[in-house]
What does this fold into?
Amino acid sequence: MYHYMTKKKGSFALLMILLVAEGVAGVFFSLVMSSLVDSAGKSGGDLLMALAGGIAYTIVYILLMIGYHCHKASLIADARCCLKGDIFSGIMGRSVADFDTGNSGEYINGLSNNMNMFEGVCFENIIRVLECVVSFGTAAVICIAVQPLMLVLMLLLAFITLATTKLTAGSLEKSTERFARSAEEYMAEIKDDFGGFRLVRSFGIIDSILNKHGQKNRRMEDAKRENESRRIVCICIGQFVGLLSTVLVMAAAAYLCLQGLCSAGMVIGFGHLIGKVVAPITAVPSIVANFRAARPLQRRFEALMARDGETGKEAAPKHVDAVGLEDVSFGYQEGQEVLHGLSFRFDMGKRYAVVGSSGSGKSTMISLLAGYYPSYSGEIRFGGTRLRDIGESGRSALIGVVSQEAFLFNDTVENNITLYREYAPQEIRRAIEEAGLSGFVASLPEGLQTKVDENGKNLSGGEKQRVSLARAILQKNKILLLDEFTANLDEQTAGEIEQQLLAREDCLIIAVTHRLKPEILRQYDKIMVLSQGRICAAGSYDELAAMGEAGVLGYILHNAEYCLM
It folds into this structure.
């Protein structure tokens, strides 16, 4: 993670120059004070010269300090921005299967709480090390020039300080890990509770939710308190060593003065040098503790940035005559298959309905066709090309997905339709018309530039689904996968949207549907019937209806789950 500090090499080099200049100037300020005291026994002119020089030196030092700290803040902000960008890119670059193994609380916490913590224990800590090196090195040179024995004393104190670090900082790393884990659990908890707000109010379970939240909240705060307590212990022990060092160094300086080995001015100078020598030594325990605390955070960031293996790199095939399932089996967990040996051919330009009772594997099959889960057995082929060999950009160009839950970004209506891609205005208008959105857009106060609230809260279910449909139309995908996309709509709206889609003849449509009325099913070229993860029947509506009341279609049409006949 340290390389994020040096990504902009010119900026980092300037920081080093300013750091050294500011650090050296701060240490040499002790000589300015020494010269002022020594001038007291000389003429008034010497005192004025020393005063003028001290004022000028102070102005330069303060300017260096301002420049250094402002540039340091800028460099750390750049490093943090780059790291957050890489983490976000790593998360968004995961496959759907890999993304689902984590939780959004972990992802959000990594980009917020853990990032803020990491800035202090890593980025700022790195610069702090350099500051201590410059301060201690410069002060050591002055001490050697005046009295080498002073440096020996300081080195002895440094070894004592380092020894105490091993006794105090060992448990800090574990407590930081516990705090990070509990913070992730808390973030996941509140996100989950907010997402189920309507459910909580509808079923009157607010007391249970408050109790559950209270437990996670208490656990996180306890972990934070423990982590802070351990950090305070490390710092306090460091402060104790620092104070002890101050006493010893001041006593040594007083002894040198009594022996006539330094001037009165240098006694004052040593008083200032004490801080420049002892502070870096005192800082060693907390610096080491911070680097220890950074390790679990770094491991978490690396895990978030790690992507699962690419399943394909080829572009979308130019010619696809059919989509084929060849003995495809799949389970979300090992040893628990949801789909069993599916083999089927979907011809381009035709329309297929996928029906079956809840849990039969309909949505899972759509997810496999969309390329979300690559860990299936068997093969899925688009023409002569395996789905596993097609890269993500190729899949998105070839396949459009309209699901039951139409997600909308907190952005303009236009950006939610175009998904931030560039299209000609006439293309956008055509997609809006075909999706039946013309009247809706015309009624908006700012037209396409009207802002959509969080996940489309200011739009109806039908309007959200039409926006989702307009996306698919605009992308001109050759294959449309529709997963119960009308499930949450009223009968009239669902019928209108489905009719608009089934009227298209320029693409392959595979639709999971719960709308089992004959007038709808007859518009599909074929109906695939799934039961317990297997294809138990396939054919046109008339072919399946000929099986009679005892047949597969008859069973599904009369199943009380649908209640549509």
Remarks:
- The radius of gyration is 35 Å.
- The domain at 322-557 is CATH 3.40.50.300 (Rossmann fold).
